[in-house]
Each structure stands twice: as C-alpha cells, then as structure tokens.
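Structure ticket #2291
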Amino acid sequence: MKFKHNSASQNPASSDAQLLVRETLRISANLASAPPPSPEAATERPLLQDSRLGGLIEDQHSSLRLICCEEMDGRRWKYFAENDSVRSSGSKQLKRTSIRAVSLQTPQAPVDDLMAFIRAYVVPEGFPDSVTPSYVPYMTWRALKHFFGGAMGVFTTQALLNSAGVSRSRSAPGAVAINWILKDGAGRVGKMLFSRQGKKFDYDLKQLRFTGDLLLEFGAGLELATTAVPHLFLPLACAANVVKNVAAVTSTSTRTPIYKAFAKGENIGDVTAKGECVGNIADLLGTGLSIMIARRNPSLVTTFAMFSCGYLMSSYQEVKSVVLHTLNRARFTVAVESFLKTGRVPTLQEGNSIENIFSLPWQKHRPIVLGPRFKDAFQDPNSYLAVERIFEKEQYIVTYNPTKGNIYALFKDQSKPDDILKAAFHAHVLLHIIHTSNQNAMSLSKGEQEISAIQPTSADLESRLLESYKVTSDLYGPFKTKAKEQGWVMSESLLNPGRARLCEMVS
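Resolution: structure written out below.
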C-alpha cells in the first residue's frame, strides 16, 4: 500500500512533517516485511485526509489514536491524539495538546460554498422540511412584487420631489432623488442582512425587541445629526436608514410571538388587530402633540432627548411586561439557579420579571456554552477520555475548561430536546458546585466569584463532575415536575444550542 503526501508536507521546519516522515519510514519497513495484502484487505483500511499532517494517514498503523468522531451540518471529522512514549503502570497515555482534526470530506467547490452562503440568507433553517409546500410560490411572487415596487419607487420619489419644488434648477431634482433612493436602498440591504439572525427571534425575542428599539433611537439620532452637517446628508441618512430598517425587522419578527403570548385560544388575529389599532391611535396622538410643540420653536436637541428617554423607558417596561411560558437561555438560568438555592421554581411572573433583557444578539453565552465544537471544549485528550466514561449512559457530555473559564455541554447525535434541557441543568449544577467549593476554600473581597479565577486540578474536576452527575440524577426529575406545576413549558427547548454533535466512531 502506498503512502501519499502533498507538497505541504515537504517543509523541514514543520514538526508535523517530521512526524510524517518517521511514520512513513516505519510503515514502509512494516510493509516490506509483511506479505502483500489482498485487494479485499486493502479496501478495509481507508486512508484519511489530514490537512495538518500534509497528507494521508492510516490510522491502524499510526501512532495516532482515534478518540472521537464529530458531525456538523452533514460534514464529519475524526479526532486523533498521539500516543505518549512515556507510559506509567502499563497504562496507555496520550500526549497533552496532541489532538488533531481529520476531515472525512474533500473541500467543497467554490460554487457549493456560494450556494450555502446564499441559502443561509434566503431560506429558513431545515428548508424545505421546515416549511409548508406553499412557501416557495408565495416567496417567488413576493420577490417579483417587491422588484416592480422598487423600480416604480425611483420614478414616484423623483416625481414627488419635483412636485414639492425642491429646487428650481434642472439637475437638482434628479440628484436629490438619486440620493434618496440610495438611502432607501441601503436600508433594505441592512434589513436583509439582519434577517439572518433567524431563530434568535424565537429564542431571545425580548432581548432582540429591546435591542431593536435601541437601534431605532440611534437611527433617529443620526437623522437629527444631518441638520448640523448637511453636507454629510447621504452617508448619515444611509446609516440611519440601515439601522432603522434593522429595527423594523426586529419589531416585525417578534410581534406575532408576543401577541400569541397574550391570546387565549384561537384569537390571535383579534389580539393582533387590536394591538395594532392601539399603536396607531397612540402614534397619531403623539404626532399631533409634536406638531403643537414644534410651533413654539423649542430646542431641537432638548426636545429629542426628552422624547427619547420616554420612548426607551416605555419600551423597557413593555418588554418586561410580556410573560412567556417557554424557557429560553435567560429564563432557564433564572429557574435553575432559584431551584438550586431555594428548592423552588419561580412562577411565570417571577421568572419573566427577573429575566435579563440587556443582552445583545451577537454576544456569546458565558460561562455556560451549549453545543460547542469538540476542539473548543477539550485540549487535552486524556481529560476527554476520563470525562467520556462518566457520561457513557447519557446523550451529552459536560466538562469544565479551566483555560477558557467556561463550562461546555456537548451533545451526541441521538440527543433529544429533553437531553438538551438536562445537559443545561447539569451545566448549571456543575457551575453551582464549583462556585460553592471555591467559596468554601477561600474568601474573596468581591461579592461575586469569577469562574475564570477557578483553576481546579484534573482530580478535582473529575470529583466535581461525579458529584454533579449524582446531583443531576437526583434533582432533574423534581425540577421538571415543579417547573410544570408553575406553568413552564418543558417540552420545547429554546436554549439555542450549537449545531455540533458527537457521532459514533466507525472503524
């Protein structure tokens, strides 16, 4: 059997290349002394592509040991670790920081990457199984309608500006119309790009709704700034329109779930209609009041600041007043922490009122990460092998990485929504145990312990994982029961876990 390699492995300065040369010589010696393999046997030992090693390796004859297999978005990786030459008490040890990822697929063509990028923006996740068959024709006609509407907008806007007498010169109306169309076009681009947030509108709709209102105020401030620097009208107006259209997407996408939370039975249409009517009446009253105030020529900045404060305060109270029955990341944290400290699960009203809504959609969840990549959770292969035995009967693995200061919950490919909830509960239990044991060990001047300051040893970590496993086994059932008694919906997991899954290793 031939051992193939590419040109990248010929760099003598690379330690991976040196390892590859040693493995090549050893495998060649073994093959020279062994009888030629049969064609059937040759097909039983597939070669794996490893870009870091610069070629193909044969895992059965290599000093690298297969420790895990991972799948994400239909693509698979195998993780290898190098055997340690120094072995204690006859047990096989693996070198630290020797984990290597091996892709089982050839690189995708640029066209496939481009199509995947486009699909991420124009179709929902899980398409076409996630939507009804009428989705495609509806979106086709909708796109065509907006195409003609945008084309007509150029001419209607120019006509309106000419009718309003923007300028008496011949060239100014056309230039102003073009600037206005560029402003609107920039806003539509911003609306399209932000729509990629996708399921975040379901997971964290309160947080996104309030963030959208903050962006709306920021856009209004940019529009106000055009009066101070009129020569920067186009860039400021474009930026303001982008921000305000992003806020419009957020408002539109979160409106229906919020109305649904208020509806009892099949009256979501009536609730939505009445809510929009109340909003329009209030908008008309506010417009009339601002017209009367504007006649007195008040300070523009002072008036805008007063209205902005009232708008943001009302927006915050509006979002806080919504009571949702499902458990997203923030509400789940409130429920579990209250249960671990007091033994009771908060009511729907209490959990929603305590929920933190000051979190931006692009912020990463810390210190608990759900569904991370394997390489983010583990750097030492021995720690993974030790943890894997503890969670052999579970569809998830929970660990703590002292280097990054995070608790990671990895999911296996057969995990169900309840497994995700249990893994998240287990992660909070482990976090609670680490905080408690650290507070017992030392007294800190700060009121709150930072998890990044905790540096447990491997033995401490394994004992805490075993303790958390026992606590989770004893308390997860009662937690679910008490949560259902309070009205929380436990069947739907809105914890927004990552897409990476640990799959079974196939030899």
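Closing remark: The two ends are 19 Å apart (CA to CA).
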